[in-house]
Amino acid sequence: MQPKFIRETRCFKVSRVFPTDVNNHNTLFGGKLMAYIDDIASISVSKLCRATAVTASTDSVDFLQPIRPSDSVSLESFITHTGTSSMEVFVKVIREDMRTGDRTIAATAFLTFVALDDDNRPIPVPGVVPETDEEKKLFETAEYRTQLRKHRREESKKFADYLLTKYPWE
Asked: Which Gene3D superfamilies does the entry link to (predicted)?
């Protein structure tokens, strides 16, 4: 399978922040931003594997700066690394004050998706080739994040054994 340049998976989304998009702190709802992140990440994934894919995990979402109604929010996503059937996606969130033009990184996120065949079994995906300094840095540090992800998943499985499944009224 021929690898693809990371730039071939790059996607962009820009939205204005409206009053209905904010919480009682007058900042963009975190859940709304997370939906934007998952949406754009899924498009990058489709550009790479051209198959059905599912979100296996939202590895991290770091909210760094508040996003206000006077801002626009821009998301940029691209695949940073692949496994056999898994794809790590990076999403960069930029807030821009529409009055001043000031731009800052408002959030960053890493998600993992898995490509599936028609029977919902994992299928191989192409590798990716970084070109820019940003892409190279994310590609070079992906193995560390993969190890953290595997460790966290194992810990989550162990923890799940202690959780109850009964409803409180049972």
From this structure: Hotdog Thioesterase
Q: What are phi and psi of 98, to 5 degrees?
A: -70, -15
Beta sheet of 86-97, edge-to-edge order: 11-16, 71-82, 86-97, 103-116, 52-63
pTM of the model: 0.92
Domains present along the chain, CATH in parentheses: 4-160 (3.10.129.10)
Give the tens place of pLDDT for each residue, 3-38.
Answer: 999 999 999 999 999 999 999 999 999 999 999 999
* d(C-alpha 89, C-alpha 122), whole Å: 17
Question: Rounded to 5 degrees, what are φ and ψ at 99?
Answer: -90, -40
Please report, to the nearest 10 degrees, the dihedral formed by the alpha carbons of residues 92, 98, 104, 105 taken in order.
-20
Report the alpha-carbon distance of residue 117 to residue 158 in Å, rounded.
29
What ranges in the chain are assigned the alpha helix state H? 30-49, 133-140, 142-160
